[in-house]
């Protein structure tokens, strides 16, 4: 994607008595780095207490060999963050650790709780909880750490009745690992086995990287507990509905991950093929915006018969840097991220496949760059429908005022970005490509139909005031 969306977070949890669980959590997080680059953290438990380290930056910046040595135990959770509620500061880096009525707990959260403001006020005024962060994730943790109930199943039932929104969670006690998925299953969470132990992670690619075997996805509303007695489901909070974020399939998940058992790469190739059927054009070459639209571009090429080429080279290390660019470098803009190949583009009519256009701030620069490199025509094709509504469930997308498709027609967008033609995948075409019914997904960013009632504009820094 030329103009990146930011996902909430990546989480991993490991129960493996015979393994170096801190090291496994590190490599699990390393494979989930695409889900968040602001901070990283790992907590471990040794049967008696919880140990935790968090730091700002990438996983490889946050942890060194000595740090892992100070995280003993046979159970771990890990978290890599992009902020959706609460600012990007070390105090908001997860996992969070608290001491509550049920002992010591640590938590990592992917998603967004839409009623966290009122719950936090209740917890502070009526329960006597104190908060160290401005994150909605701490609200979940404090409620769980002090929830009524004789066992964890009853406590989770209480918490899941109270909190609203999207959440996949990993929770650590001194002697157990728990994992939970919200009743609609908005954010992904899968389960794998590892040498007699268990792993939970945001995506199956994390299982692959540490040698675990994919078993299944957690069901919407499911809570599992893993301890010395094994793995068991202790709560099912589903009402039969599901609403997984369809943008996980389009963009967020790595192409080598499986979502609900289905290949993400295969879904994206199918999107590209459907896009070619809906928006054919006479052209000489197909290119994709690397890396997120590469599979869709390959699908467009296969269906259209137009050859696929690499027309843009991506600097894969351009993500987070702590060095500010000077004005001359800043003016290069999108060239910091992509560089065109004139030998591929010169004199050619080019189909450019991207996964989405959000604000429309960088797409004009990409089109201009391709034409400067010699492209005779640029036909922009987008393998998602127009994004017209903001996300309230864990994606820092934009306000409605900032979303270009909420404020311009497709022809106006085409003129704005400078493309010769512009075509978006239809919503029906998207689900045809995914091969699953629309009823199982949240597509509110396209349709405006939210699976949970939300206020139209929410403030990610609200809990700081």
Topology readout:
Elements: E1 6-7, E2 9-15, H1 21-31, E3 39-45, E4 50-56, H2 59-62, H3 65-69, E5 75-81, E6 96-100, E7 103-113, H4 116-125, H5 136-146, H6 152-162, E8 165-173, E9 176-181, E10 190-194, E11 197-201, H7 204-209, E12 213-217, E13 222-227, E14 230-236, E15 244-245, H8 247-252, E16 258-259, E17 262-263, H9 264-278, E18 285-288, H10 294-304, E19 312-314, H11 327-332, E20 338-340, H12 342-345, E21 349-354, H13 363-372, E22 377-382, E23 395-396, H14 404-407, H15 410-417, E24 421-424, H16 427-434, E25 441-442, H17 444-447
Parallel strand pairs: 15-25, 18-21, 21-22, 22-24
Antiparallel strand pairs: 1-23, 2-5, 2-11, 3-4, 3-5, 6-7, 7-8, 8-9, 9-13, 10-11, 10-12, 13-14, 16-17, 19-20
What is the helical fraction, as a range of percent? 25-40%
Please state the overall shape, judged from the principal axes of the Cα atoms.
Answer: elongated
* Span of the ends, CA to CA: 33 Å
Number of domains: 2
Main beta sheet: 7 strands, antiparallel
Q: Any idea what the CATH architecture of the largest domain is? A: 4-Layer Sandwich
Radius of gyration (Å): 22 Å
Question: What's the CATH topology label of the largest domain?
Answer: Glutamine Phosphoribosylpyrophosphate, subunit 1, domain 1
Strand content is 25-35%
Number of strand segments? 25
Instruction: Give the full name of the CATH homologous superfamily of the largest domain.
Output: Aminohydrolase, N-terminal nucleophile (Ntn) domain
Physical arrangement of strands within the biggest beta sheet:
4-3-5-2-11-10-12
Question: Mean of residue pLDDT?
Answer: 91
Overall structural class, as computed from helix and strand content, comes to alpha+beta
CATH class of the largest domain: Alpha Beta
Counting DSSP H or I runs of 4 or more residues, the number of helices is 17
Low-confidence stretches: none
């Amino acid at each position: 994607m030329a103009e990146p969306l930011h996902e909430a977070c990546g989480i991993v949890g490991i129960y493996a008595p015979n393994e170096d669980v801190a090291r496994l959590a590190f490599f699990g997080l390393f494979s989930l780095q695409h889900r968040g680059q602001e901070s990283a953290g790992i907590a471990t438990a040794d049967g008696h207490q919880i140990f935790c380290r968090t730091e700002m930056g990438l996983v490889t910046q946050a942890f060194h060999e000595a740090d892992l040595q100070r995280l003993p135990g046979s159970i771990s959770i890990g978290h890599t963050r992009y902020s959706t509620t609460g600012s990007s500061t070390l105090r908001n880096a997860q996992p969070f650790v608290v001491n509550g009525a049920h002992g010591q707990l640590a938590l990592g959260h992917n998603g967004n709780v839409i009623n966290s403001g009122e719950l936090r006020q209740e917890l502070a005024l009526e329960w006597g909880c104190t908060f160290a962060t401005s994150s909605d994730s701490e609200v979940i943790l404090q409620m769980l750490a002090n929830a009524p109930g004789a066992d964890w199943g009853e406590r989770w039932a209480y918490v899941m009745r109270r909190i609203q929104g999207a959440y996949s969670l990993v929770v650590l006690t001194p002697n157990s690992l728990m994992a939970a998925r919200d009743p609609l299953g908005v954010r992904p969470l899968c389960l794998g086995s590892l040498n007699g132990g268990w792993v939970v992670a945001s995506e199956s690619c994390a299982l692959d990287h540490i040698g675990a075997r994919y078993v299944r996805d957690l069901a919407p509303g499911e809570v599992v507990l893993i301890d010395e007695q094994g793995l068991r489901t202790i709560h099912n909070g589903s009402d039969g509905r599901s609403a997984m974020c369809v943008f996980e399939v389009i963009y967020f998940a790595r192409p080598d991950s499986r979502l609900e058992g289905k290949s993400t790469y295969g879904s994206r190739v199918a999107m590209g093929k459907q896009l070619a059927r809906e928006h054919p054009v006479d052209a000489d070459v197909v290119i994709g915006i690397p890396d997120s639209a590469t599979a869709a571009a390959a699908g467009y090429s296969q269906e259209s018969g137009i050859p696929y080429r690499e027309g843009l080279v991506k600097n894969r290390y351009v993500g987070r840097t702590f060095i500010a660019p000077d004005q001359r470098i800043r003016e290069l803009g999108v060239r910091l991220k992509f560089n065109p190949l004139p030998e591929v583009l010169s004199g050619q009519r080019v189909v450019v496949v991207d996964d989405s256009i959000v604000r429309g701030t960088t797409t004009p620069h990409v089109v201009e760059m391709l034409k400067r490199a010699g492209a005779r025509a640029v036909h922009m094709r987008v393998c998602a429908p127009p994004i017209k509504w903001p996300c309230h469930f864990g994606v820092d997308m934009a306000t409605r005022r900032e979303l270009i498709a909420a404020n311009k027609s497709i022809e106006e967008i085409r003129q704005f970005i400078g493309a010769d033609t512009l075509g978006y995948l239809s919503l029906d075409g998207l689900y045809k490509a995914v091969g699953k019914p629309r009823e199982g997904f949240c597509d509110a960013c396209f349709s405006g139909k939210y699976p949970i009632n939300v206020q139209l504009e929410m403030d990610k820094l609200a809990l700081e005031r």
